[in-house]
Known about the structure:
- The complex is a heterodimer of chains A (332) and B (134).
- Chain A is an alpha+beta fold and 332 residues long.
- Chain A has helices at residues 13-24, 31-37, 65-74, 86-98, 153-160, 184-199, 207-224, 227-242, 252-266, 269-298, 303-331, and strands at residues 44-51, 54-58, 77-81, 103-107, 126-133, 137-141, 149-152, 172-177.
- Chain A starts with 12 loop residues before the first helix and ends with a helix.
- In chain B, strands 1-2 form a two-stranded antiparallel sheet.
- Chains A and B meet through helix 8, helix 9 and helix 10 of A and strand 1, strand 2, helix 1 and helix 3 of B.
Amino acid sequence: METNFTHHQSAHCENGVASNLLKHNGLNISEPMIFGIGSGLFFVYLPFLKVNYAPAISYRPMPGQIFNKAAKRLGLKIKRQKFSSEANAVKVLDENLKNNIPSGLQVGVYNLTYFPDEYRFHFNAHNLVVYGKTETDYLISDPVMENVTTLTHSELNKVRFAKGAFAPRGQIYYPIQVPANVDLKGAIIKGIKNTCRDMLAPMPIIGVRGIRLVARLIKKWPVKEGTKKANHYLAQIVRMQEEIGTGGGGFRFIYAAFLQEASVILGNDELQTLSLEMTAIGDLWRDFAVEASRVYKNRSTKVDVYNTLSDELLAIADKEEAFFKKLKKAIS
Amino acid sequence: MKKEEVPQDKGNLSNKNMKELVYATDENGNYTTALSSGWEPKTIALSNSIEEISERIAIAKAQVENNEMSPIFYYMEFCRMDIGVLSSYVGMWQWRVKRHFKPKVFAGLSDAVLKKYAESFNITVEELKNFKTN
């Protein structure tokens, strides 16, 4: 059986699944729109959570939050279900496909056979859509892939029940109610306000302050942890910032695209100017990635390099602080 | 990022003929999407992490061969896991998994326990028992 689902490639998996599922349900909404309304732009530094033996840094909120927030603000109803038994998880998915409902799934990346080997880590917050089933395979629309693909029944079970941090526990989700008319304007404003609040939060590990904290730590790493570890940590930052799913520059370019779209919908020219500014900030993040990669490529041991990198990041933090203050004003 | 500046470097994606989607501006400053085959700084960051893992695997292999560690430790590294991930796959406490890293304890493990590990590593119990690394 197969549902009449159309695959569109996207930059980020969660927004992509959300956008594709809503398009299927008759609500034409772009990936940047979902990202902006769901307040997807974020920064958090979690020193106590180690990913691949380096402190976790994330440029996005907790998995699932973007779609949940966007759905709430657009007045959609999403059904989410987790399972303790694998058999039940299969049953619900098959039932959905029988009823012509393509379904979003949270999965682990490690056993995704169609990914290049280098990308297969124990990362459990990937999202994809299952839109059909054959005798041996499930038909998969993975939004970060150019084309649709397949997984065998047992392969899909494995990724649905991957273990570790953020274990998906077979999570399945799909919209059950999509209103014909949505209040885009109100949703956009709520989304922007939330992002400004997050990025300017008075918490040391979140938003602009989190960026500053990491910047200061970059200076300390080579002394405290040795250059090898410092370089490993830096590589981790760059990976989180640029890896598949971010659309480049730690999501800054997607956000700029959202602001541009929003400026048209709200008739607010200032958002257009701010979109350009966000693009410039995204370019600075890209420059930071280039500089950082030079450090761990040449294995340069000068303490200086780390200071330069740290200053670069501090400059970005200052720019972002000014930016989000302006953005807050622009929509109030 | 401007559309014509979207990097098309060779990397881990282009080896598999994959391309990723990025957001970039066109000549009028309007946002559009473009495909990128890879970007060198990213490739370097990723290979840095992969190298790190290969080193860990090599060390683990030597430790198993010297009878300092059990094969479970090697396969954990080989599967890119850490103790937290492995313990949730086999459904045992971390201290228990850590104990199974000792070759002496490993030698006395029942087939039922070994099966849990083997399934998590995607290998057979025989492969786990008769450690060979090729």
